[in-house]
Amino acid sequence: MTSNDVFEQIGAVDLSTVANIATALTVLTAVVFGLIEMRRARKEREERAAFVAVQAILTPAWIESMTLVQAISEGTTSAQIEADLRLFRAVQSIACILESLGYAVFARMVPLNVVDEVLGGTVRVAWRKLRGYVEYERERAGSQKNWEWFQWLAEQIDRHSKARTSLTRGAHEAYRDWRP
């Protein structure tokens, strides 16, 4: 074997090593890019979910219904709710919408933190106002299925809330020092 043969073998090994390193770097770059894209897609999905949630509540029917539900006074009975057709329809509307939203959170279609930030206070107030009526409906139907996801959503928001806002501290206080 001549010295030229040795140099050719070293050159071939070096070229092979360089090719392996290039392949490894390409794979590593693809993995990093994939992870970045997954994170971006998740963030985009959360933003889209927040937009859909806000759109769902910003209807005249939602606003009117939620206004009526929020105005339910302590001690209002189920019979009183059912006797007032306008209030009864509002209760049914709010409960059904929050039932659907609760299931969407459970199925991970809408992130809980998004619902908490956008609607957390509304969900809590609605559950507090409607809990007695929901329990009455369950007893009357003989089933715990009535508005189960609405209750689940309210409980999950209470359990897992990381929001800086609450029923006693609004966004105007919690994010006072926010900067664009």
Q: SS-based structural class?
A: mainly alpha
Shape: elongated
| Backbone CA Rg | 28 Å
What series of H and E elements makes up the topology?
A: HHHHHHH
What summary fits the major beta sheet? none
The residue-averaged pLDDT reads 87
Poorly predicted runs: none
What portion of the residues fall into strands of 2 or more residues? under 5%
Quaternary structure state of the chains depicted = single chain
Distance between the termini: 71 Å
- Binned, the helix content reads over 70%
Short characterization:
This protein is mostly helical and 180 residues long. The protein has helices at 3-57, 60-70, 78-83, 85-106, 112-141, 148-160, 171-174.
Give an account of the 3D structure.
78% of the residues lie in helices and 0% in strands. It has helices at residues 3-57, 60-70, 78-83, 85-106, 112-141, 148-160, 171-174. It is mainly α. The protein is built from seven helices and no strands.
